[in-house]
Fold this sequence. Notes:
Layout: H1 8-13, E1 21-26, E2 29-33, E3 39-47, E4 50-58, H2 64-79, H3 84-93, H4 108-119, H5 125-138, H6 140-143, H7 153-165, H8 169-188, H9 218-229, H10 235-247, H11 251-255, E5 262-263, E6 268-271, E7 282-285, H12 288-301, H13 322-329, H14 341-352, H15 358-364, H16 383-402
Antiparallel strand pairs: 1-2, 2-3, 3-4, 5-6, 6-7
Amino acid sequence: MASNLLSDAALRRAKPTDKLQRLRDGDGLYLLLRPDGKRWWRFDYRCGGKDKTLSVGVYPDVTLARARQRADEIRQQLLDGIDPSVARKAKVTGVVTGVVTGEVSDSFEIIAREWHAGRAPTLSGNTSKNILLRLQNNAFPYIGQKSVRELRAPDVLDVLRRIEARGLGETARRVHQLIAQVMRYAVATGRADADPTPALRGALKPVMVRHHAAVIEPVELGAMLRAFEGYSGGVVVRTAVQLQVMLFVRPGELRRMEWAELDLDGAQWRIPGEKMKMREPHIVPLPQQAVALLKDLRPFSSRSRYVFPSPRSKDRPMSENAVNVALRALGFDRDTVTGHGFRATARTILDEHLRYRVEVIEMQLAHAVRDPLGRAYNRTKYLEERKDMMQAWADYLDKLKADSAISR
């Protein structure tokens, strides 16, 4: 990972001089600031025994965040044994050469990138990005360098089983479809003799009917978050809906939140074991945005021990259906989203897009996470990583809310 030495503020402050400047972000990525004021992102790397440089875009059209994302993609290609410069040419021209050895390649990754480049002009920007991300995160690390002529059903099944093991059955189904489309393209263009994916029919675990419907596409989530801002049914319920997404606890845990359980100065919510499904105490690190929402809410519910009191009695929490009723009032039906479904939303996007470790996500979801000896971890396990993750999640939600074009 890049060491992230730059900041948006530093980039804005940087002024051209009479010499070429390299503003380094670490691990190969830097901004080239020319005397004429033009700014170009560059990435230095070594491949096949040679030092090389790849253009990453022009600042500010390519933001710092986007440049880092592109740099991560380049690093992944290098880890997979692909020369990024040659892969880029293959994407543009359809030439399928370019693994580190320099030999002609019919690798799955090269074919997949060629297929994707051909489809990209017909897709929305977000759909195109999400397709490539799913392949990069789930398929390329395992079958990217395998010849499409040699790719067999067990190879593909191994990829899909890995996704299922992370609890992402829906993602496994989608990756299966993408691999099938790439392989059909490989057959059509004469690089493969057969598509092995039909042989996997029935091999995957069935995706359970969602009792808790969830939105797992970032753009759809961004639109939903903007809709929440316009909820007119009262500040208590509106805040509950906002925190349901941000904290992704079980709805019953949220509605029974008590002021005594909160340490707003320490940015923690400590839920007693008797309130938890697993009957174990649970710590929820509170991002800055959650603390601000709770402080703003306090004047409206401070007379109750509950953060979200019932409108009929301050001695009871709000109805278990309050969040779902608010979602329906905003126009989202039960087949689209439920309050409980936001757990699946966070689970999927934190894994697929923000790339947090599965065990850290699972611990924050208050699922049973065990060490190599089978013992359950205590409630403070991964706490620092969970603090970082919860803040990153809240920041990501803010970005989605501000700009539906963000897909990562």
